[in-house]
């Protein structure tokens, strides 16, 4: 229910542009779950236990495997060194 309402708010107020932002703090060096080094992409997402973690692709698939508000966001390293929410 929460995710549906948030999607309605985003659509109603045209907030999509606000959601395509860059990671603002220092990017994670490794996956919070398995310690795999983060190279070109990572996920900031909710785990099965309700806590949040910065994850590699494999751990993200295992933990929830879904993207969206309240689930997870994917960040991709850009050529300028910034990490963009894609």
Write up what this structure looks like.
It is a single chain. The protein has helices spanning 2-12, 16-19, 57-63; strands at residues 41-46, 52-55, 72-77, 83-85. It has 86 residues and is α+β, with helices and mostly antiparallel strands. The protein has one domain. A four-stranded antiparallel beta sheet has the order 2-1-3-4, covered by helices on one side. The radius of gyration is 13 Å and the shape is flat. The relative contact order is 0.22.
Strands, helices and their partners?
Layout: H1 2-12, H2 16-19, E1 41-46, E2 52-55, H3 57-63, E3 72-77, E4 83-85
Antiparallel strand pairs: 1-2, 1-3, 3-4
How would you sum up the global shape?
flat
**Percent of residues in helices:** 25-40%
Number of helices: 3
What's the alpha carbon Rg, rounded to whole Å?
A: 13 Å
> In which order are the strands of the major sheet placed?
2-1-3-4
- The sequence of SSEs as H and E is HHEEHEE
How is the biggest beta sheet arranged? 4 strands, antiparallel
By secondary-structure content and strand pairing, the structural class works out as alpha+beta
Q: Unreliable stretches, pLDDT < 50, 5 or more residues?
A: none
Total domains:
1
Multimeric state? single chain
Mean pLDDT: 86
> How many strands in all?
4
Q: Note the gap between the termini.
A: 24 Å
Quote the beta fraction. 15-25%
């Amino acid at each position: 229910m929460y995710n549906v309402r948030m999607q309605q708010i985003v659509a109603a107020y045209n907030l999509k542009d606000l959601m395509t932002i860059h990671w603002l703090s220092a990017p994670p060096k490794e996956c919070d779950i398995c310690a795999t080094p983060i190279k070109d992409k990572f996920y900031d997402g909710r785990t099965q236990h309700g806590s949040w973690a910065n994850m590699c692709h494999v751990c993200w698939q295992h933990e929830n495997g879904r993207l969206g508000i309240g689930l997870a966001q994917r960040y991709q390293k850009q050529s300028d060194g910034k990490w963009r929410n894609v």
